[in-house]
Amino acid sequence: MRQQQFERDNAHAWTRLRDLLTALEGRRRPGPEVPLQRLAPLLRQVSGHYALARSRGYSPGLIDELHQLVRRGYRRLYRVRPAWPGQLLEFAVAGFPRALRRHVGLFWLACALFFGPMAAMGLACARDGGLIYSLLEPDQVAQYESMYDPTNVKLGRDAERQADTDFMMFGFYVRNNVGIALRTFAWGLAFGVGSLFVLATNGLFTGAVAGHLTQLGFGTPFWSFVSGHGSLELIAIAIAGAAGLLLAKALLAPGRHRRAAALRANAAEAVLLVGGATLMLLLAAVVEAFWSSSPVIPPAIKYAVGALGWLLVGAYLSLAGRVGRRWT
Amino acid sequence: MALRLAGPVPRAAAQAIDWLIRLILYLVLAPLAAFSGVGVGLMLLGLFLVEWFYPVWFELRSGATPGKKAMGLLVVHDDGTPVGPSASLIRNLLRALDFLPLFYATGLVSMLIDRDFRRLGDLAAGTLVVYADRPQGDRHIPEQPPRAPAGRLDTDSQQAILDFAERSPRLSRARCAELAELAVGDGLIGRGVDTGKHGEAAVADLLGVANWIARGR
């Protein structure tokens, strides 16, 4: 069939597809007057025309035109429209803890890399008041000391920040802590070195500060401050570390896949972990800014809430999302 | 379906545009600091969102950041479908690594090594940066009395002749004549015909053959 005849026979289908795509691309939710159900059959038809035009050697201009039309339709047909609130909720109550349980080995490894140095450094600094200076500058140490001075009005903030509002600190905690988590994940792709480094250094610093302040006699303000959000925050950092290690695993131990394929598969899993860690850190920032810093709540209550927090986080991560499973 | 991959240079240009837009966003956020307390808190949240999720937001909305859109680029899965939330998050969070040690040096090395110009984030997410469709020009073949070629033409020759015919309205007359003389002289429209034709005559011959291929007698 000559090209002219072919064009004359089929041009109306091309125009209809083009008009439909133009109508769909313009708006987020097409109105009832747009014949959405025509998209798939029209696209199938025009894809056939494109294949024919190529195999029959019609003019490059026509082939190009049909190719563009097919690509536009393909993009429209396979467009992902996430249903945000519902999917996010589903992810929070089931998807995330399930994903974590699939990689529980790496989670424990990340915990060891994070809490190990933390505990060791904490115990060492609690015994030796000078050891912290091997890790932090003297003015940093002074800043931490002023943050948890028992005479403070607001806990966890140094002298200059006493007047800052809780909301400002919320913004600060979100940017700082989630930033750390996201970097821990991303740098894990460097054969795990980045995750390892972030986990270990953050563990060392946290442990050093905790041990040092306890040894100074600032234990009550410090521990009552961190107890509220500690469970969420520390576990979330460990989870972000596990996500980074998951990327590294694809390079170091890809198993039966090629490294590229393993990386693709592991990254899809790791992004679930880091997404969940981000949610946990957002919640932790709320607690840290509005609850932990309050000086009027007695330490005993804060400790109780802190302990409850660990229980709840543990229960959430180990149990949530199991109920949907079919018991056969 | 074929995708045209975008190389490091247009992507760097897109990145530069995006940096500029981010800078403007930062400048918009900065005055919030004047409203101490809540204002600073909002500013810090805004900075956090722009730092990490600026590309994700735009990629999920329309497939490309404003910078990429300006350069005519599009982010797609490697099967050509539009990029989804998971892949967009992966490729953009991994910017933190691709950026190291300075100005996407790691990403650039990865793009130069990889056949499909993928930086590490693209490799992990399974995404490609491709050229979006460009608006197509007129593909009208100028009318000429059809003229049968002297022999059988293979598909490549037919495509070359049709390509010439479609592009001829956008070429200068001198360039048309030059190309047509080359084609006719090489026997593209069949051996044994008069290959000595020049200028407009050669163009008319070639367009005649194109008309014969596309429209028939």
A few lines on this structure:
The complex is a heterodimer of chains A (about 325) and B (about 220). Chain A is mainly alpha-helical. Helices cover about 75% and strands about 0% of the residues of chain A.
Tell me about this structure:
The complex is a heterodimer of chains A (328) and B (217). Chain A is mostly helical. Chain A folds into two domains: 3-77, no CATH class; 84-319, no CATH class. In chain A, 75% of the residues lie in helices and 0% in strands. Chain A starts with a helix and ends in a 9-residue tail after the last helix. Chain B has 217 residues and is mainly alpha-helical. Chain B has two domains: 8-131, no CATH class; 155-215, no CATH class. Chain B has ten helices and two strands; from the N terminus they run H-H-H-E-H-H-H-H-E-H-H-H. Chain B has helices at 8-29, 38-62, 66-70, 85-93, 95-98, 105-113, 120-125, 155-167, 173-185, 199-215, and strands spanning 73-77, 127-131. Chains A and B meet through helix 1, helix 3, helix 7 and helix 10 of A and helix 2, helix 4, helix 5, helix 7 and helix 8 of B.
Question: Secondary-structure map with pairings?
Answer:
The complex is a heterodimer of chains A (328) and B (217).
Chain A: H1 3-26, H2 39-55, H3 60-77, H4 84-102, H5 104-127, H6 138-147, H7 166-187, H8 193-216, H9 219-252, H10 259-292, H11 299-319
Helix pairs in contact in A: 1-2, 1-3, 2-3, 4-10, 4-11, 5-8, 5-9, 7-8, 7-9, 7-10, 8-9, 9-10, 9-11
Chain B: H1 8-29, H2 38-62, H3 66-70, E1 73-77, H4 85-93, H5 95-98, H6 105-113, H7 120-125, E2 127-131, H8 155-167, H9 173-185, H10 199-215
Antiparallel strand pairs in B: 1-2
